[in-house]
Design goal:
Rossmann fold, 4-stranded antiparallel β-sheet, cell membrane, ATP hydrolysis activity
Length: 275
């Protein structure tokens, strides 16, 4: 279980990104973190694994207080937290398999990682994970030869190679088309169910958040203004999180965008068949 207690982050400029944020995420639960730009979503995720240092409050993973760990202890703790990035954060010149195995860097001696000589058990796990994310035929391809959706699947497999207790996911669909976005969100949700993994997903797409998370937490100006089931995310709640907006019109626009994307995909498939 992840537990945040009065988490606060104030930057040197005096800007407060997070203010007294408290909530728990039990094992197996997928939480969608939504809110406008500047609400503190990315800061919150980065505070959990201390890529950003909180200025107040406490963070616990199980019985371990993350905010109280020294550097060496933090390195060990980060093995328990998998991170999936918006821009994939892959090493482009390395193969898919090598990128997945980089999830074990916190476990193996430096010489093994430098020589790319990982234990057989780690390699076997990596192959199994590539099979699970649908990339078993791409193990030897360079990362820069993959599509955006494939790269994100490599990022998911790399995070799982750590055998984590918690997934932190930062805008996993921001660079993807609507169909691929749904596939990625569905994959993350299924994997969390299979492994009883807790997850926090920072996501800008409200419709995807409603469809593929168990719980929504809405941030505005660094504060939690909503915490509940996706079904409770009605127009009044969205207005509280994002401000005034014509939500019905926005949903229509999202539906039209999705229909356009499907039509474009069908057009490309027809062109490919005609060749």
């Amino acid at each position: 279980m992840l537990r945040l207690v009065s988490l606060t982050k104030t930057y040197k400029t005096g800007d407060r990104a997070l203010s007294e944020v408290s909530f728990e995420v039990p094992a197996g639960q997928v939480v969608g973190l939504i809110g406008p730009s500047g609400a503190g979503k990315s800061t919150l995720i980065r505070c959990v694994n201390r890529l950003v240092e909180p200025t107040g409050g406490q963070i616990f993973l199980g019985d371990t207080e993350i905010t109280g760990l020294a550097r060496g202890e933090l390195r060990v703790l980060r093995r328990r937290i998998g991170m999936i990035f918006q821009e994939y954060a892959l090493v482009e010149r390395l193969t898919v398999m090598e990128n997945v195995l980089s999830g074990r860097l916190g476990y193996v001696p430096f010489w093994r990682s430098f020589m790319r000589r990982f234990p057989e058990a780690d390699v076997a796990t990596a192959f199994a994970l590539l099979e699970r994310v649908g990339l078993s035929d791409h193990a030897d391809k360079r990362a820069d030869a993959l599509s955006g959706g494939q790269r994100q699947r490599v990022g998911i497999a790399r995070a799982l190679e750590q055998n984590p207790e918690l997934l932190l996911v930062d805008e996993p669909t921001a660079s993807l088309d609507p169909k691929t976005s749904r596939q990625i969100m569905r994959l993350i949700k299924e994997i969390c169910e299979e492994r009883n993994l807790a997850a926090i997903i920072n996501i800008h797409d409200v419709v995807l958040a409603q469809g593929f998370t168990d719980r929504i937490i809405g941030l505005r100006a660094g504060r939690v203004v909503f915490d509940g089931a996706p079904s409770r995310l009605d127009d009044s709640v969205l207005t509280e999180i994002y401000g005034e907006e014509d939500w019905a019109q926005m949903r229509r626009a999202e539906q039209e965008d999705e229909e356009d994307a499907r039509a474009e995909m069908r057009r490309r498939e027809m062109m490919a068949e005609a060749r």
